């Protein structure tokens, strides 16, 4: 089995290399024979990588500890569930997993575009294959997951208990699906540049890919946040850790890209900008991998082998240099006919939205690499922490929030006073009402509380502006057709999936903003060393420490559980069971927190320590509005689904375009 | 037309400038020097009072907890034969153990004691398992009975249930 896995990886590398070259040669020299031969490679590469992955999975599930990787990340007693996910538990497997996803995406692109768009697709396939070659090269020659141990040990070392959480099965694949997905729009963008096919067809062809990748990246970030929240036991969900930043930056730039392509589609503007954005997004995904795998920047997520990072750095430089050169070479072709007319217009709100998103991305980037820069320039390592990111990104984030309310409703080209009045009267009034209504209730003692107040007011403004759009659409539909309110709302949304799906995503974003603001400013926490029967108060909850129990859950796991009674207004309200788990073979315990989550606030308990006399240290957080963020995430998911749902009108338009193209450049099958 | 372009350029530059200003201010207000213990002690300038971040390994047996206030911890960290006394108030992370690598954030007082307001243990992730285990190379593997169970002995004293 292991030999097969190793061998298929080599075959995949060779085939991918050949395919890459053959695709380019066939497109340049118009050679159909070569094209037909190259066109078989995506499937072969995918099949080889899949077989190899199955081999590794089999090794995990059958406890084959002759593989160093399996030995290091699994043991006999591990749950099957986690044996399955140990596949991406470490460096080597995660690279193979990455390649598996990439080749699968590539295969889907291949089937989608078979003998279509022949001017662009061969180049796009070649670019994707080139990326695959890079990863396969690393897997084959630097971090081979099929590396053997000559004398196989009897049992493995086991998976880190922190990774033994169901999020381990969900979060990394989701994030990877997002990361990897941007390779597709990137490949098509570069293909468009190479083949000088510079209308917006590459954007339309890859719109769904961009959306899907964006969606997975967004969800991956949120899942990561909730994993950190329930597993790491520090009461927070985001620490501005370099690796978190590495996942956050591509998300920001991709968001900018998603918005600015609309301008290109509608107005044929910002062509160079869009090219640069997709290049930047892709580079950021590689940069993120570089950070995670180089050990250059201290982070909780770092992988072990430090040398691998430099391959990624080299790869990054090659991509950046080549693509920049390509964009510059094609500059004359990327000129756009239209210009911005007025500050007060939809177009410029898109421009500002882009600048603001890139601003947040740049601030985050700068903070992440600042230690390296300061060491290089001044010889001293200077680090910045969460205070820096909060101080810089919060004001920019608020500007972004305001733009969410303004952008979608402001008139195209040039907004007149009457337009503005018509579109913004209601949202502004809602904002003012919220400001007045909230003023007596929210504390405004420090900067965080003032920011939160502003956030809430802006949220009211944005929500009203979005809901007004739904209201207008529904009313005009009801005026024309005899439909109920719900019926009209559904039809309007269904007929304009892109537009209203986008609005729903915006609502989700507003909820996330509100959740972050509430939990950052109004949270409180305390830590107490308690004897049995002791109690204390926090935010109106009376918490009593009742007992401490040790349970031998399995032969490898011992759980120490504290029981805490929570009373509110004299009545028992909830019983919390924070615990600590000790795993055989791991030299550190794992804290399992217990959370009571309501829409208003989370009560979050950690068993920090305990002693033989059954006294224990308990840390309690009260985090307001955290659940709003998770709800916002589901709303975003729902909105993305709607805007991604196949649109028959859109498909018809696209088919026409494809036909037109094929007349210009007949596919080899027809010749 | 020209004029319009200039106006947009100015507008965009204003935004970019504002963001740049925020970043510079942010850096100068919140940055911390990052040293390992030996680097810090070999500095000629005194960093007393400045925001510092220091990395080192916990000296074996140096962790002392105040018997009356469990959350009050004193310990030392070392790196390349240089060591530093640290005072910390608060819950310690799971991985805070003898020999473990930690990063403390806080300030130095004049007596050379470091007052930490944040205590981070490095990398709980198995990705760094090899490094963590130190002597254990990928080729070598531990015997089945070699694992340690610190803390579990504390649990022995507790009422036991089995499920």
Attribute tags:
heterodimer; A: 671 residues; alpha+beta; six-stranded antiparallel sheet; four-stranded antiparallel sheet; 11% strand; disordered C terminus; B: 163 residues; OB fold (Dihydrolipoamide Acetyltransferase, E2P); 2 domains; elongated
Protein model, in words:
The complex is a heterodimer of chains A (671) and B (163). Chain A has 671 residues and is of the alpha+beta class. Chain A is 64% helix and 11% strand. Chain A is built from 21 helices and 11 strands. The radius of gyration of chain A is 27 Å and the shape is globular. Residues 667-671 of chain A have low confidence and may be disordered. Chain B has 4 helices and 8 strands. Chain B has helices spanning 2-30, 37-41, 129-133, 152-156; strands at residues 32-36, 52-58, 64-65, 72-79, 82-89, 101-108, 113-121, 160-162. The radius of gyration of chain B is 24 Å and the shape is elongated. The relative contact order of chain B is 0.11. Mean pLDDT of chain B is 72; it is low at 123-156. The chains are: A alpha+beta (671), B alpha+beta (163). Strand 1 (381-383) of chain A pairs antiparallel with strand 1 (32-36) of chain B, so a sheet runs across the interface.
Widest β-sheet, arrangement of strands of chain B: 2-4-5-7-6
Helix/strand/pairing category of chain B: alpha+beta
- Average pLDDT over all residues of chain B: 72
Please give the CATH architecture of the domain at 1-158 in chain A.
Up-down Bundle
The helicity of chain A comes to: 55-70%
H/I helix tally of chain B: 4
What CATH calls the topology of the domain at 1-158 in chain A is Four Helix Bundle (Hemerythrin (Met), subunit A)
Strand fraction band of chain B?
25-35%
Report how far apart the termini of chain A are.
Answer: 44 Å
Please summarize the sheet with the most strands of chain A: 6 strands, antiparallel
Instruction: Give the biggest sheet of chain B.
Output: 5 strands, mixed, barrel
Order of helices and strands of chain B: HEHEEEEEEHHE
Rg of chain B computed from alpha carbons, rounded to a whole number of angstroms:
24 Å
The CATH architecture of the largest domain in chain B: Beta Barrel
- Low-confidence regions of chain A: 667-671
DSSP helix fraction of chain B: 25-40%
Sheet-strand content of chain A, in percent, reads: 5-15%
Oligomeric state of the chains in view: heterodimer
CATH class of the domain at 1-158 in chain A: Mainly Alpha
């Amino acid at each position: 089995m292991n030999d097969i896995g190793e061998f298929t990886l080599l075959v995949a590398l060779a085939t991918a290399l050949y395919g890459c070259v053959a695709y380019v040669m066939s497109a340049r020299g118009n050679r159909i024979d070569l094209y037909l031969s190259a066109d078989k490679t995506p499937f072969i590469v995918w099949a080889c990588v899949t077989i190899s992955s199955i081999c590794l999975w089999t090794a995990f599930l059958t406890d084959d500890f002759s593989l160093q990787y399996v030995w290091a990340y699994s043991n006999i007693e591990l749950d099957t569930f986690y044996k399955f996910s140990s596949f991406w538990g470490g460096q080597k497997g995660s690279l193979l997993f990455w390649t598996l996803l990439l080749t699968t995406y590539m295969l889907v692109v291949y089937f989608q575009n078979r003998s279509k768009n022949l001017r662009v697709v061969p180049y796009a396939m070649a670019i994707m294959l080139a990326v695959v070659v890079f990863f396969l090269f690393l897997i084959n020659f630097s971090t081979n997951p099929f590396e053997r141990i000559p004398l196989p040990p009897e049992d493995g070392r086991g998976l880190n208990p922190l990774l033994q959480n169901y999020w381990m099965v969900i979060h990394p694949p989701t994030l990877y699906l997002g990361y990897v997905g941007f390779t597709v729009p990137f490949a098509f963008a570069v293909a468009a540049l190479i083949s000088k096919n510079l209308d917006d067809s590459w954007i339309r062809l890859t719109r769904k890919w961009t959306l899907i990748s964006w969606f997975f990246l967004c969800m991956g970030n949120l899942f990561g946040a909730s994993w950190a929240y329930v597993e790491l036991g520090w009461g927070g969900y985001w620490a501005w850790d370099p690796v978190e930043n590495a996942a956050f930056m591509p998300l920001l730039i991709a968001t900018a890209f998603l918005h600015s392509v609309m301008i290109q589609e509608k107005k044929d503007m910002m062509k160079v900008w869009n090219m640069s954005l997709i290049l930047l997004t892709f580079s950021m995904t590689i940069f993120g991998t570089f950070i995670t795998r180089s050990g250059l920047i201290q982070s909780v997520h770092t992988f072990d082998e430090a040398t691998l990072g430099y391959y990624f750095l080299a790869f990054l430089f090659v991509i950046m240099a080549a693509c920049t050169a390509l964009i510059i070479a094609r500059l004359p072709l990327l000129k756009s006919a239209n210009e911005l007319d007025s500050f007060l217009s939809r177009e410029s709100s898109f421009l500002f939205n882009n600048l603001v998103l890139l601003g947040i991305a740049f601030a985050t980037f700068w903070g992440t690499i600042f230690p390296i820069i300061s060491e290089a320039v001044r010889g001293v390592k200077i680090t910045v922490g969460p205070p820096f990111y909060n101080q810089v990104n919060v004001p920019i984030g608020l500007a972004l929030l305001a733009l969410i309310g303004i952008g979608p409703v402001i008139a195209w080209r040039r907004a007149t006073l009457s337009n503005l009045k018509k579109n913004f009267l209601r949202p502004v009034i809602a904002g003012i009402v919220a400001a007045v209504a909230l003023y007596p209730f929210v504390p405004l003692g420090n900067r965080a509380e003032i920011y939160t107040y502003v956030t809430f007011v802006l949220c009211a403004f944005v929500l009203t502006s979005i809901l007004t759009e739904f209201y207008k659409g529904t009313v005009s539909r009801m005026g024309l057709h005899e439909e109920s309110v719900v019926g009209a709302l559904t039809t309007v949304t269904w007929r304009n999936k892109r537009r209203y799906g986008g609005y729903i995503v915006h609502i989700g974003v507003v909820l996330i903003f509100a959740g972050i603001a509430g939990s950052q400013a109004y949270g409180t926490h305390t830590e107490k060393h308690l004897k049995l029967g002791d109690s204390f108060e926090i935010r109106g909850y009376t918490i009593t420490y009742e007992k401490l129990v040790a349970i031998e859950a399995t032969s490898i796991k011992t759980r120490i559980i504290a029981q805490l009674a929570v009373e509110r207004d004299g009545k028992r309200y909830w019983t919390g069971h924070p615990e600590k788990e000790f795993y055989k073979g791991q030299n550190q315990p794992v804290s399992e927190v217990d959370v009571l989550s309501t829409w208003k606030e989370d009560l979050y308990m950690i068993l920090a320590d305990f002693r033989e006399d059954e006294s224990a240290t308990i840390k309690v957080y009260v985090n307001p509005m955290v659940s709003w963020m998770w709800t916002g995430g589901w709303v975003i998911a729902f909105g993305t689904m709607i805007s991604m749902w196949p649109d028959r009108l859109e498909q018809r338009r696209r088919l026409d375009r494809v036909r037109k193209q094929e007349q210009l450049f007949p596919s080899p099958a027809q010749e | 037309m020209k004029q319009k372009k200039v106006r947009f350029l100015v507008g965009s530059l204003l935004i970019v400038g504002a963001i740049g200003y925020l970043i510079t201010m942010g850096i100068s207000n919140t940055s911390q020097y990052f040293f390992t213990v030996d680097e810090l002690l070999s500095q000629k300038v005194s960093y007393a009072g400045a925001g510092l971040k220091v990395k080192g390994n916990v000296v074996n047996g140096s962790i002392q907890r105040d018997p009356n206030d469990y959350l009050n911890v004193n310990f030392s960290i070392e790196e390349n034969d240089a060591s530093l006394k640290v005072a910390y108030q608060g819950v310690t992370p799971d991985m805070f153990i003898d020999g473990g690598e930690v990063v403390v954030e806080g300030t130095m007082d004049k007596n050379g004691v470091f007052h930490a307001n944040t205590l981070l243990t490095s990398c709980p992730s198995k990705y760094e398992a090899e490094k963590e285990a130190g002597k254990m190379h990928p080729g070598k593997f531990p015997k089945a009975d070699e694992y340690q169970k610190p803390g579990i002995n504390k649990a022995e004293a507790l009422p036991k249930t089995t499920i």
